[in-house]
Amino acid sequence: MTVNVVFFTFVLIFTIGGAAANPSQYANTASRASSQIDSLPDPDQAISVYLDCRRCDSSYIREEIEFVNYVRDRFQAQVHIFVTDQGTGSGGRKYTVSFIGQGSHSEIEHTLTFTSLDTDTRDEVRKGLVEVLKVGLVPFVIETSIANQLVISYEKEEDRTIQAQDDPWNNWVFEVYAGGYVEKESQQERLDIRYGFYASRVTEVWRIQARPYFNYNTRMFDSGDARIKTIMHRNGFDGYIIRGLTNHWSIGVFGNLISTTFDNLDLRIRVSPAVEYSLLPYSMATRKEITFKYRFDVGYYNYIEETLFGKEKENLLRQSIEGNVRIQQPWGSIFAGIEGSHYLHDFSKNRLEFYSNFSFRLVRGLSLNLSGNLEIIHDQLSLPRGDASLEEVLLRQRRLSTTFEVSGRIGFSYKFGSIYNNVVNTRL
């Protein structure tokens, strides 16, 4: 692949289609309410709130909602606001906001939702979330003296009949992207270029995606005695068509085409029918998900160099089964799974992978984060014949033979001191 022009990163995204809620609207709420108050009440009068949200603008929320006390520890809160989110078919996000009462409010718990568009600005998204938070806090606030200082407003819609949306794009969303990175010194230089295209369609029953992509990378090192230059590429196509059958079953077909120097693949074409069973209803996926997947691959492999097994090209059949658990709760989150696969012509050519990511709030102020990955590898059929050169090893120019790969991470944090977190200060 020859590159004559070096360009810097640009991204062109256009998203049209898919009826999603306006940032000023949200599901499960027949009216809109806003709560207003002249000044911040004393801590003894206001309820204490713990905001548990990864994508929220916490400073903005504290400025806009001043009739509660914000604490930095969920064990100190009377209300735990737990926010999870998922991407929508149109490129926006659906936020599920759970209001969980604690202590004297433990009998109160409810959930609201808010959906943003892909074209919404960050300001529009945070304003929409603030409206949802105000409404959700009302059942807790009305039991306090603050209730007398609240003003509830209602905006009547002239026509409350739900009209079918006329979508000329039929839920299709498209994205074009391209980017480049260049770095140069007196004795080394680097160039990375990537570009591609997304086309996707998501409905209640169907998920469809097509994605061609292209990556080009060069590295140059000059040691004085020798000049080393490497060129690598990774081009391909990923796509799938998935259909939901019931609230527990789904089927799909995956297509994959790739050409990559790192894996010694001049061309690999793979078609993979698959089936998935969800132990819990898919409607619970924002909080709990337990799934099992079976996949069968039919593939054609054409190698750049002859492999260790004397193959220049071959047809291969492969099957895999995977199970994973994903849980997001106020006490933390769990994502873990196991996947096993093997080629049908030789069961000894197999792979087993374990992966996990845990985050726990152990006690007041103390959080523990763990993640790990283990792969037992016996299926590197595309490895080229012959030993890798020192340059190829140091520059990671091609994949090396191994029987396992393991990685892990551990971390913890502990906070102590004042539990209140109402003040917003953005200076310097």
Shape: elongated
Strand line-up across the major sheet: 1-7-8-9-10-11-12-13-14-15-16-17-18
CATH fold naming of the domain at 245-414? Porin
| Count of β-strands | 18
Question: What ranges have pLDDT less than 50 throughout 5 or more consecutive residues?
Answer: 1-43, 159-164
Percentage of residues in DSSP E strands:
over 45%
Which structural class do you get from the secondary structure elements?
mainly beta
| Helical proportion, percent range | under 10%
Number of helices: 3
The major beta sheet can be summarized as: 13 strands, antiparallel
The termini sit apart by: 47 Å
Helix/strand order: EEHEEEEHEEEEEEEEEEEHE
State Rg: 27 Å
Write down the overall mean pLDDT. 82
CATH architecture descriptor name of the domain at 245-414: Beta Barrel
CATH class designation of the domain at 245-414: Mainly Beta
Describe the structure.
- The protein has 428 residues and is mainly beta.
- Among the domains are: 32-149, Rossmann fold, CATH 3.40.50; 245-414, Porin.
- 7% of the residues lie in helices and 50% in strands.
- It has helices at 58-64, 122-141, 390-394, and strands spanning 10-14, 48-52, 69-70, 79-87, 93-101, 109-116, 172-184, 188-202, 206-222, 227-244, 249-260, 265-278, 288-303, 313-329, 332-343, 346-363, 366-377, 404-414.
- The strands form two sheets. It has a 13-stranded antiparallel sheet with strand order 1-7-8-9-10-11-12-13-14-15-16-17-18, with no helix packed on it.
